[in-house]
């Protein structure tokens, strides 16, 4: 009995020791992991972005410099700071005193890197054919299921509108989007892609080949690999508004030969704008041109560019087609249909030899510039970060690794010697800092297409934001001027006002050639899906006089630096308020 008790006691001691050892090992492993992650966050917050890069200078140089915004927040005695071409260095941010907006921004930028996306999201494999029987096409979906069709990416039939949703794509979502754009058919592919059009694809496929499950709806078929699940779209429910209505473009001098200029036409007594627009929409043309009782459909071309509008008096009764002046002038309307001559995009077939950056301060129109470049060149742009919302809007380069060299250029908001010298050349996009700061603050609180609320603007976050981000606006430009190897400076305001000349300049810098018709197509689709929605505040002035004084000093410094590098100075509208 004693011997058995001794054995039991020995076993329990060994078990206690084993449990203690495992617990200690578990705690040590957890501690190491926590330390590693903490170190990574600190490194991400302290390198790359040079929002507050500055160097102490003598008091006598204050007249040509910029006061560090931190001195406005902490009025303690200390050296004045200069942000200048020859004074930029890259010290780590003082985590105790730097504005938390900037630290959070640094962390946010780093965490959007491509490698995080590849760890976070993995593409789902198409469902097995065996599970296809469980899919449904009619239960809760609107419209009529037309079948499974082949989809050729080089020559798509349904190409009127395209969008993606990696996580929430459903059949109803795609159908409603196409209905809002006045299309007849909605097609889904790869479980996450939606295509709209007015013509059915020519080649039908076996039903079981549409075997990709919708990302946002289990059990529903959303096409497959090079396969489209096509639905005929029903009319929108009563009271629903179409996203893109018919837009009056103006009165224009008619081309000499209307039938040669426009591919489709209709002669109709008592012709109305609605009749002509509906006819051209079904033909998938973006322009509806009315002259008397004649309706013409087509695109903007070199022969009819829509650049030189005529006085509306020449088109008497512009909203009554039958009374429009016949012969020399015509009424032009934009239909809900997208101009598809420039919507085809792809990755570069061979790796680019020149690594080009599309660099800007946040809120300076980088996404819009990417939209223009992609549609002008036909190639995707990449990104130093990953933004799922932009990927869903068709920027497929978001998912590609930023150093793959399969994209025409790479979006970046980074500055600093190391980050800049990675690129062989760069398009530097600059926008009025007042507009940029407001745009980035809107994005921070309401996404790419929304507006921040009055409560956001009146919070204490707004002054902190201006104090930290304003210096970043200046140092971003100064860093690229100092370390950039080959630069093309584009001002957002110039691009907006003279789109085709500036876009042609950007395309030539990228060593690409494009046709005039393609550039006119881009101009016709210039806004894309990137106009902010919601009510814009009128006569709203969020900047205090102290903020203006700070920003104006940055404007003068950047203007002087641009001229010192033989670039055109900042536009006149940047001049201090």
Task: Lay out the secondary structure.
Blueprint: H1 2-46, E1 55-56, H2 70-73, E2 81-82, H3 100-111, H4 114-120, E3 144-150, E4 161-164, H5 171-180, E5 185-189, E6 193-197, E7 213-214, E8 217-221, E9 227-232, E10 247-253, H6 258-261, E11 264-267, H7 273-282, E12 287-291, E13 294-298, E14 309-310, E15 329-334, E16 356-360, H8 366-377, E17 382-383, H9 388-392, E18 410-412, H10 417-421, E19 425-430, H11 433-446, H12 454-457, H13 461-483, E20 487-491, H14 492-497, H15 499-509, H16 516-524, H17 545-564
Parallel strand pairs: 16-18, 16-19, 17-18, 19-20
Antiparallel strand pairs: 1-2, 3-9, 4-6, 5-6, 5-9, 7-8, 10-14, 10-15, 11-13, 12-13, 12-15
Helix pairs in contact: 1-3, 13-17
Whole-number mean pLDDT: 77
pLDDT < 50 stretches = 37-134, 237-243, 318-325
State the CATH class of one domain.
Answer: Alpha Beta
Oligomer class: single chain
In CATH, the topology of one domain is named Rossmann fold
User: Could you say what the CATH architecture of one domain is?
Assistant: 3-Layer(aba) Sandwich
Question: Looking at the structure, what is the overall shape?
Answer: globular
| Helix and strand composition category | alpha+beta
Q: How many DSSP E strands?
A: 20
Main β-sheet, spatial strand arrangement: 11-13-12-15-10-14
Q: In this structure, how is the largest beta sheet organized?
A: 6 strands, antiparallel
* CATH H-level superfamily of one domain: P-loop containing nucleotide triphosphate hydrolases
Rg: 29 Å
Count of discrete alpha- or pi-helical segments spanning 4 or more residues: 17
Strand content: 15-25%
Percent helix, as a range, is 25-40%
Distance N terminus to C terminus? 97 Å
InterPro entries: P-loop_NTPase (IPR027417), Sialate-O-sulfotransferase (IPR051589), Sulfotransferase_dom (IPR000863), WSC_carb-bd (IPR002889)
Keywords: Repeat
Organism: Fregetta grallaria (White-bellied storm-petrel)
Protein name: WSCD1 protein
């Amino acid at each position: 009995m004693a011997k058995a008790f001794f054995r039991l006691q020995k076993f329990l001691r060994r078990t206690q020791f084993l449990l203690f050892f495992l617990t200690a090992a578990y705690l040590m492993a957890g501690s190491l992991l926590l330390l590693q992650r903490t170190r990574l966050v600190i490194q991400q917050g302290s390198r790359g972005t040079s929002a507050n890069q500055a160097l102490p200078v003598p008091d006598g140089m204050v007249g040509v410099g910029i006061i560090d915004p931190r001195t406005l927040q902490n009025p303690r005695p200390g050296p004045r700071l200069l942000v200048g071409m020859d004074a930029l260095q890259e010290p780590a941010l003082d985590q105790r005193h730097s504005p938390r907006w900037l630290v959070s921004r640094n962390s946010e930028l780093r965490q959007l890197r491509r490698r995080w996306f590849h760890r976070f999201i993995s593409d789902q494999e198409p469902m097995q054919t065996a599970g296809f029987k469980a899919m449904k096409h009619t239960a809760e979906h609107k419209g009529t299921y037309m079948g499974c069709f082949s989809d050729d990416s080089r020559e798509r039939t349904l190409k009127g509108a395209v969008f993606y949703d990696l996580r929430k794509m459903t059949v109803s979502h795609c159908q409603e989007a196409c209905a809002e754009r006045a299309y007849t058919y909605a097609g889904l592919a790869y479980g996450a892609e939606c295509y709209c059009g007015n013509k059915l694809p020519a080649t039908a496929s076996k039903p079981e080949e549409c075997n990709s499950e919708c990302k946002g709806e289990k059990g529903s078929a959303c096409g497959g690999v090079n396969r489209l699940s096509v639905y005929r779209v029903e009319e929108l429910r009563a009271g629903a508004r179409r996203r893109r209505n018919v837009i009056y473009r103006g009165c224009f001098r008619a081309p000499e030969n209307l039938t040669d200029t426009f591919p489709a036409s209709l002669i109709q007594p008592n012709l109305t704008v609605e009749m002509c627009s509906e006819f051209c929409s079904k033909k998938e043309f973006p322009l509806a041109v009315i002259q008397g009782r004649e309706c013409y459909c087509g695109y903007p071309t070199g022969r009819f560019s829509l650049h030189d509008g005529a006085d509306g008096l020449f088109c008497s009764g512009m909203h009554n087609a039958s009374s429009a002046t016949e012969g020399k002038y015509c009424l032009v309307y934009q239909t809900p249909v997208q101009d598809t001559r420039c919507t085809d995009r792809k990755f570069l077939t061979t790796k680019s030899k020149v690594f080009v950056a599309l660099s800007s301060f946040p809120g300076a129109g980088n996404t819009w510039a990417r939209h223009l470049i992609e549609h002008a060149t036909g190639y995707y742009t990449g990104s130093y970060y990953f933004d799922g919302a932009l990927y869903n809007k068709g920027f497929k380069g978001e998912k590609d690794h930023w150093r793959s060299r399969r994209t025409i250029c790479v979006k970046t908001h980074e500055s600093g010697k190391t980050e800049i010298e990675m690129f062989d050349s760069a398009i530097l996009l600059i926008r009025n800092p007042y507009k940029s700061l407001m745009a980035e603050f809107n994005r921070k609180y309401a996404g790419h297409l929304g507006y921040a609320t009055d409560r956001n603007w009146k919070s204490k976050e707004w002054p902190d934001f201006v104090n930290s981000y304003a210096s970043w606006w200046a140092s971003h430009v100064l860093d690229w001027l100092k370390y950039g190897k080959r630069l093309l400076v584009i001002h957002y305001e110039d691009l907006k006002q003279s789109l085709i000349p500036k876009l042609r300049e950007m395309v030539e810098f990228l060593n690409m050639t494009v046709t005039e018709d393609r550039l006119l197509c881009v101009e016709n689709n210039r806004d894309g899906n990137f106009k902010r929605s919601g009510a814009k505040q009128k006569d709203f002035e969020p900047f205090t006089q102290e903020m203006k004084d700070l920003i104006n000093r940055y404007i003068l410094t950047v203007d002087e630096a641009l001229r010192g590098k033989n670039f055109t100075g900042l536009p006149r509208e940047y001049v201090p308020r």
